[in-house]
Structure prediction request, 356 residues.
Amino acid sequence: MQERLRAWRDVMLLHERKLAAFGLFLGFLFDTVTANRPDQLYTNFIITAYFIIAAACIMLMTIRGKDGFLGPLPLITIVQFSFGNLTSALLVLYGRSGTLVGSGIFIGALIAFLIANEFLRDRYTRTHVQIATWFLLFLPYVAMVAPILWGQFGDVVFLASGITALTITFTLVEVIRRVAPRDIRLGLVRMTASIAAIYGIFTGMYFLNMLPPVPLSLTHIGIYHTLERTPEGNYAVSFERAPWYEWWHDTNTVFHLEAGKPAYCFSSVFAPTGLSAPIFHRWEKRLDDGSWQTVTYLSFPINGGRDAGYRGYSQTFRTTIGEWRCSVETERKTLVGRTNFVIVNTPPIELFVREL
Prediction:
């Protein structure tokens, strides 16, 4: 039996990096397929389980992590695996919300941590690093689910989510302090400073509109020539089809429009069930100096629950030739999504019709 344990340990140590990378890849693939909605019960159950498992392993490592034939290796592996999968789940859910233009720094930070997680094994032996990393992932998760539970957005909801995350994290610290006061005392100052820095940076990014507007996400946006409501409750639209090599666009980025004709911006924004919020369409034209000038700014409310997103549109007659864009924003002007196009003052060659 002892020989088998030694062989198992040697295999784990020899292929430690490869096994961790393979597990992380499988976890990210699993999250991409399963983490479809931030209000999905299964998704939140899995994420919560990872947090609980990581917290339990941190406590066990603090109490007796150096005991046993394998020492802290199994617990560190579980913590690292949990942190990696939590990061990938948050990356998937946050990545579906907002845009790289508006939220690129935060998304980039998640990607960087996902990669760095593979090289932090030695750091995870320190309790203060474990707790700070746990809070680093727990804070954005609570900020994501808080609007779902409250049924609304706003600064109050965000600040309340931050206080909740801090309270739960320091409750975990207090529990660990009671069972292992020496380990907590040695790293208490650094841990508190790290948590304060994480909270300050995350809050600053929120008020600078650098965080994705979770749990909202854009499921569709396009520029159309006509738009009518059908008896079935859908929208019949006419549009210029994008060329095959622009497969990611629903409508052509070159918009042929005769003078005096309107243009319609149609969007679908996903929101969880029970959540209502105002959404804004901002029509902008690029000026000669390269800046963008707001031409039309309209709002309409959305109600959550529809998988394909809550549909809404705006229209404007104030169009002229040149570069344009229509942005979908929240009340705080956080970017949910955007489409860019160029208006040409000639009749469209061919229009296609579809229902949305």
User: Anything to note?
Assistant: Helices lie at 2-14, 16-34, 41-64, 73-95, 100-116, 127-150, 155-179, 181-207.
